[in-house]
Write a structure and sequence with these properties.
The chain contains 6 helices and 8 strands. By secondary structure, the protein is α+β, with helices and mostly antiparallel strands. It folds into 2 domains: 99 residues, no CATH class; 114 residues, 2-Layer Sandwich (Beta-Lactamase), CATH 3.30.450.190. The strands form 2 sheets. Strands 5-4-8-7-6 form a 5-stranded antiparallel sheet, sandwiched between helices. The chain has a 3-stranded antiparallel sheet with strand order 1-2-3, covered by helices on one side. The radius of gyration is 22 Å and the shape is elongated. The two termini are 28 Å apart.
């Protein structure tokens, strides 16, 4: 099945043959391995292989790899969840997947920043999340309990980052990009890259490694920043 947002999409048979040839070539060249991506002139192709099904996405060369991989994983996982039973007894009829094209188009037209943050919050089970643009003085994304004021918490987050930076400079500790605070009931992670802040709240009763909190928060902020620059 093929879905494209461009006016002149590639021929389905040619595309299928190309993917199959690449998959067969990689398995013959180095047994047990598979191609995950290809870089062409001005474009990149990323792949997901699930048994006999190959999912592929084409994007511009400037699009960050992490963003492309996130999109591909979301789309392929949704397809397998929706059509898992049909695939086990599939007779080659593509019409049963026709409605999935609408999902793909809608997915790609929605805000990827919000999707990435929602995914981050879901996987790490955060209790609250704020993304703030310091230059524009505006909240880009907020998902917090109703009793918490987003703007107030952003102000405190900025103060903490600045205080930590000054403290680190005094003790020659180097640059500071993230802070992890241990409160009675929560872990509070504040990170900043360039002009973007992220504040994430994690329930303290969960058994989660502190390094995971910091690394995943920093990774998510990095991906969001790359996406905002596209």
């Amino acid at each position: 099945m093929r879905c494209s947002l461009e006016d002149n999409p590639m021929d389905a048979d040619i595309t299928t043959g190309f993917f199959t040839a690449i998959k067969d070539f990689s398995s013959e060249l180095i047994p047990g391995t598979e191609v995950k991506s290809l870089i062409l002139s001005g474009y990149k192709l990323f792949y997901n292989n699930h048994d006999n099904i190959t999912f592929a996405i084409q994007c511009s060369e400037e699009t960050p790899d992490q963003i492309v991989r996130f999109i591909l994983d979301e789309i392929s996982n949704t397809f397998l969840r929706l059509y898992g039973e049909e695939l086990s007894n599939w007779n080659g009829n593509l019409n049963i997947f026709e409605s999935f094209k609408n999902y793909v188009v809608q997915f790609l037209e929605e805000s990827l920043v919000e999707k990435i943050l929602e995914d981050f919050g879901y996987k790490l089970r955060t209790e609250g999340l704020i993304l703030f643009d310091e230059n524009e003085d505006k909240i880009i994304f907020s998902k917090l309990p109703s009793e918490i004021s987003s703007k107030k918490k952003v102000t405190f987050g900025g103060m903490l980052i600045n205080f930590a930076k000054n403290l680190s400079l005094e003790f020659k500790g180097g640059s500071v990009e993230s802070i992890l605070i241990s409160a009675e009931n929560k872990w509070i992670c504040v990170a900043k890259k360039e002009n973007i802040y992220i504040i994430a709240l994690f329930p303290k009763f969960r058994n989660i490694e502190l390094e995971v909190i910091i690394s995943k928060t920093d990774e998510t902020l990095e991906n969001v920043l790359k996406l905002l620059k596209i």
